Amino acid sequence: MAATDLQPVHDTDQPGQPAMRPRGPSGLGLSGKLLLLTVPLVMIAAVLLYVPAIANFWVNRLNDRVAAANTAALVLDAAPLGMVPESLSREILKSINARAVAIKMGQQRRLLASDNLPTAIEHDIDLRDMTVWEAITGSFRMMLETGNQAIRIVGPGVGNAQFIEIVTDELPLRQQMYRFSRNVVVVALIIAVLTAGLVYLALHYLFVRPMRRLTASLVGFHENPESSARIIVPSQRSDEIGVAERELSDMQRDLMSMLHQKSRLAALGLAVSKINHDLRNLLASAQLLSDQLASVPDPRVQRFAPKLVRSLERAIAFCQSTLSYGRAQEAAPDRRMIMIEPVVLEVRETAGLASDASIAWVAAIERGLAVDADPDQLFRVLLNLVRNAAQALESHSSGDGGAQQIRITGKREGAVAILEVSDTGPGVPQKTRDHLFEAFQTSGRPGGSGLGLAIAAELVRAHGGEIHLVEGTIGATFRIVIPDRPVELLSIRNERQRA
């Protein structure tokens, strides 16, 4: 039997050279992008408002011309025999910016007044049944044209007149539309700037500043993730940003805790690698002595020598298991049906409880109980639990003089073996129960490494079982559930045929 060398733990996640990354926003930040996005959107809204506004302005000006023409028609129609001096007709047409005014009454159309009629009419505009779309297209068509074309406007008449017609120049109307558009553009720009500024300030204080705070916390935490001062302090906001701050704070705390555990694990691996050389020499010397004791014919020596050899082998395996746990390379269990009583007896002797009269030992195992498990790994699980129980009783003995007892029970329920290890100690503190089976989560006892329950849980899970703390018991009770491996029916039939 050769002593096993303990190899140092090597972190497989060695970081390379840190990638150069910007610590702040490059180019336009979120505020600049928000401003560039707000101004065009407000301008688009202004344009959408301008389109119906200019169409409404155009229609109103046409209606004003029609209303003025109706007033002029009343004056011209009221003259005796329709005789109106030519000079008065010109003055009336000039006042309403028209070249001619005509009305239709019944089947007759009357030209009430005219002055310098154009040779051709470019457009006819009928206000009696104009739609919104016709108003929009007509207004923009007039604004985009050039020159001074003559247009005829038809609108509802007054009195007995069916409708009234007015011939006018479109240049004055186009100039009015240009002035109105200029005023609208100036007002729209002022409103757009004010609205964009207000929206920008509101979004800046509601969203941009909190996002900068989150970003600064992320950058600072990346620089030093093990510093608790870099953890963000969440605000009292109840919206999504408040939720993000609280979740980021919790994530940073969990990550910092994980990094601390990883540092402790690395320190543990370094410490074990340093004592590897000396421990190997000590175990080699103990091995030579055990080999010499095995040749002594004394019956008592022959009785204890195999156990000594086995203890040395387990000592080597335990040291190696600590390193294996750090590398997450625990060997797969070599499962077979084993009797549990010899394993429990060996656990008691190894833990030193066979000669300890201060702690009562109770083993309530079903007769002939067999477990489908790896004997060495099951031994390690039970030994960790028993040692924890013994340490809890020793630390509790000074404060309570009551009976101290460790109890191991075992039974079978169908294809499942159930083992329980309990003690009458102080129990597990409430603050450590949520992370009881995680590495380095000790209960605060002096000398505890925080690896016993973590290794036990890993070995039990490798068997497809589970381990948990039973609530509502005196002291602490750990229940281990190990199911039997499923057996293929074909293999059983082949074995029976061979038998």
Automatic annotation (TrEMBL):
Its EC number is 2.7.13.3. InterPro entries: HATPase_C_sf, HATPase_dom, His_kinase_dom, Sig_transdc_His_kin-like_C. PROSITE patterns: HIS_KIN (PS50109). One of its GO terms (biological process) is phosphorelay signal transduction system. SMART domains: HATPase_c. It catalyses: ATP + protein L-histidine = ADP + protein N-phospho-L-histidine. This is histidine kinase.
